[in-house]
Amino acid sequence: MKKLITSFMMFAVLLGIVPLLLPISADAQQRKIYARRVVGRNGRVRYVRTAKPSFYRRHRNRVNVAAGTVGGAILGGLIGGKRGALIGGAAGAGGSALYTYKIRPKKKKYVRIKRY
């Protein structure tokens, strides 16, 4: 019980500190322009500005592999303890990577245009 209370208190302190570490203003950040490649009827290629894709669409592969790893680790931990969590995490990472990269690969590519 003491470990549970201690870990809960540490988590609460961590949640209290995180907002203080975030940047106050975004003035120093550069704005990224995303574009879509369009081929016109005359064969010319032009780039049309589009809205920035969502976090999931930009980092789909990483999010899917991380979710599979966490799910596998949780199931393995429930079944086999610490060693089971390691084995389950590895199996989850492998399965989700196989799903993400081979079975359902990304179809849409985003091009970032640099302004000089």
Report on this model:
It is a single chain. The mean pLDDT is 80. Helices cover 59% and strands 14% of the residues. It has three helices and three strands; from the N terminus they run H-E-E-H-H-E. It has one domain. Strands 2-1-3 form a three-stranded antiparallel sheet, with no helix packed on it. Strand 1 and strand 2 form a beta hairpin. By secondary structure, the protein is of the alpha+beta class. The chain starts with a helix and ends with a strand.
How large a portion of the residues is in β-strands, by DSSP E?
A: 5-15%
- The helix tally amounts to 3
The N- and C-terminal alpha carbons lie at a distance of 59 Å
List low-confidence stretches: none
Strand order of the largest sheet: 2-1-3
Tell me, what's the shape?
Answer: flat
Q: In percent, how helical is the residue content? A: 55-70%
Series of secondary-structure elements, N-terminal to C-terminal: HEEHHE
Number of domains: 1
Mean pLDDT: 80
The count of β-strands is 3
Q: What structural category do the secondary elements indicate? A: alpha+beta
Largest sheet: 3 strands, antiparallel
Radius of gyration: 22 Å
